[in-house]
Structures are given as C-alpha cells and as structure tokens.
Amino acid sequence: MAWLGLDDTDSLDGGCTTEMFVRLLERMGVEYDDPRLVRLWPFAENRTRGNAAVAANLKISFDEAVNLVEEHWIWLCERSEPDSNPGMVLTEEQLDESIYWNAVRMHVESTDIDTPIRHHLWSTGGTGVIGATAAIAWRGIQDHTWENTVYRSAENIGSPRRIDENSIAEMDKKFPGTFLNRDPRKQKGLIAPRSPCPVLLGIRGETEDDVRSAFEWLRNNGDMEEVAGNMVWRTNQACDDHIGSVITATVETTPVVRTNGHASASTSEGDIVAFSEGGDVNKLLQGLIPGDVISWLGLEHLGVYHLERLRLVKAALRFKQRPMCHCGKRMKSAGKGQSPRCPTCGTQSEVDWIGEHIEPSEWMEPAPDRRRHLAAPLERKIPKDDIDLKSHI
Ligand SMILES: [Zn+2]
C-alpha cells in the first residue's frame, strides 16, 4: 500500500492541481481509494490559488509506486504552470494526523518530513511538499464533505463556461444534500470558477451519493458543454478545521471604518477586523459600540482576529444619556453609587440611563462567494457558543 500526495502545480494564471492529479492517476493506470482534496492555512505564504492539495491511497506496493511515479515526474513538471513549485510525496503508510492540523491551523516552515514511515519526495524546491504531506495526513473523521469536480475539454479551456443557470437553481432544490450551489441574493450560480483553469464546475455536498447524483442530473437536464471527466473527492471544505472555538468578548473601542470599508475594533479578548468583503459581518462590526458583548469565529493572524462569523450577544444602550426631569432639565450624576439628580429642583431619578435598546443578532457570515473554502456555512453548522458566555450576560 502507498499514499501519494501532490501540491502546487498551478498558478494564478491557470492550471489546477486537482486536474493534474487526476491525469497523473490515469497515466499511471493504478487502482486507488479515498481521493481527497484538502484546503490549508489561508495565510500561508506562496500559497496556490485556493490553497488546495490532493492525495489518494494507491492499491500497489510502495516499491512499485516509487518506480511508477518516477516515470511521470518529468511529465508533471513540464505540464505544471511556469511559476509553480510542484511537490509530490509518496509514503508507505498514512502520515500522522498532526501534520495536517499544523498545516491547516498555522504557518508551516519546514519542507522536511520528520517521520519513521518510508517515504520518497519529488520537489522543485518549493513549498508544494507541505501541502502534499498534509493531504496524506488528513483523516476527516470528525467532519468531512464531498466535492464532485468536473473538468473541461482541452479545446474549451479559456473560453466562457457553458452551464445552464436555471438547471443549477433546479438542481439546488432537488438535491438538498448539496450546498453552496448558488447565491440566492444575487440569483447566481456558484459551482463554476471564474478563473481560466480546467475546472468546469464543482458540486459540494454532505455525501458521495449527493454530489454524484446531483451532477448526473445536471448533465442530463441542462445545456452543458462537453466534459473531459470528473473526480469525486472527500474534502475538508466547509468544516471549519482552520479555526478554533467561539470567542466571546466586550467591545472596548468605537469601530474604525476605513474609506475602503474595512472595519476594526478592540475588544476585551483582542483586536478584530472584518474586511468589506465580509458583507454582513462587516456591517454588524461597523454598527457596534463600546460595551456590546459579541461572539465570533475568526482566524488570528499577527495579533488580529479576522472575523469569519459574528454575533451580537448583548447590546449596550444606544444614544445613552441621563433621563429628563419633570421640570425639563436633564438629570446629572450625583456621584458614585447614587441615583442621578436634577441640578435645578433636586429630584432624584429612578433610572440611571436612558437610550435605545436593540436586540441581539443572529450569527452573520459573508456572502457565499466571499467565504473561504474551509469556512462552514451557517446552513451547515451553527457555531457552538463560548463556554464562558454566561459570564458576559
Ligand atoms: Zn428638575
């Protein structure tokens, strides 16, 4: 038995590591199992587009696999994008799962594999090996999803994709086990990428059967260009593996909103930021005031949490001021621990402050086309509340 992982054969200009891997498996003519598509740490330097790596379990011996892969390494390098750094890893057994968790949660420096497991590396010296080992190491036992990736014929690559938008909408209704098929707000399909890569579409879903049947239906029921093949991957997409647990905090500063719409604030648990692409998350952050209690899920990078989901748990009073006295004057503070008092007639107030109460919010998330591949949509997973939530309310 052997595990083969591949990363970094594409670039922003084109190519696709998943397509390269499918072609490689075809050329090698081996039987394989558990093909997986794994997304990694979104802030990684030199990351490829979408930061995806792939692997599969080959049904041949390690020694046979070494020779077979070796025969195709030059072909693979020649076919990779000019500014990519292909990395391929072959191991006799599956690597330790901690390798995956490091690569999805933090910056990984070393391209060496520190393991007693027999392995062989092919690399052009870049970071591709990191993704390739992480894809082999991934288990996805707690959570995983599926993607059916469909590839374009060579002659179509670069031209506009031909898929019927109406049938995507219909497929979305017919196959509730699939998700992120379209953006309901913009009435627009999300399954086709917009880059000049060889992928025609990717259907994501909860089970292998969901993504297989949805594509079969789409192919038989809508106008679609000729396809060159497909692969059903098990994946870590939409599982939230990249972020830790929910953090609950009190807002300490009035949010700063830049001209480009990026918003940031300081809280009792650290600084937070939501870029304008964050949509509803950004809007909610912009409207916060000091004293608001919020919960978030986000990626900490260089000391700042980049918010991916946000909820207003308990709102501070808006337009907070002292109440009016019946004589027409506004009450004033009468010192610590005392009720406010009217400076003119001396009447004591029954309430300390008046203002506008607002309700807590639901969880907010960016629009579907602005989310990370790793991010779990709210329709799939509602964040589990912070265990310390009660101490804030
Ligand atoms: Zn008064």
What does this molecule look like?
The structure is a single chain. The protein is α+β, with helices and mostly antiparallel strands. It folds into four domains: 2-137, Alpha-Beta Plaits; 145-235, Glycinamide Ribonucleotide Synthetase, Chain A, domain 4; 247-317 and 357-392, OB fold (Dihydrolipoamide Acetyltransferase, E2P), CATH 2.40.50.1010; 321-354. Helix content is 21%, strand content 26%. It has eight helices and 19 strands. The strands form four sheets. Strands 5-4-1-3-2-11-6-10-7 form a nine-stranded mixed sheet, with helices on both faces. Strands 12-16-17-15-14-13 form a six-stranded mixed sheet, covered by helices on one side. Strand 14 and strand 15 form a beta hairpin. The longest helix has 18 residues, at 62-79. The N and C termini lie far apart (55 Å). The mean pLDDT is 91. The chain binds zinc ion. The site of zinc ion has 7 residues, from loops. Residues 325, 327, 329, 342, 344-345, 347 line the site of zinc ion.
Q: Mean pLDDT score, rounded?
A: 91
The biggest sheet, with number of strands, parallel, antiparallel or mixed sense and barrel status, is: 9 strands, mixed
Domain tally: 4
Distance between the termini: 55 Å
From the alpha-carbon coordinates, what is the Rg to the nearest angstrom?
26 Å
Q: Using the coordinates shown, work out and report the CATH topology of the largest domain.
A: Alpha-Beta Plaits
Number of helices: 8
Bound molecules: zinc ion
Query: Architecture of the largest domain, CATH level 2?
Result: 2-Layer Sandwich
| Poorly predicted sequence stretches spanning 5 or more consecutive residues | none
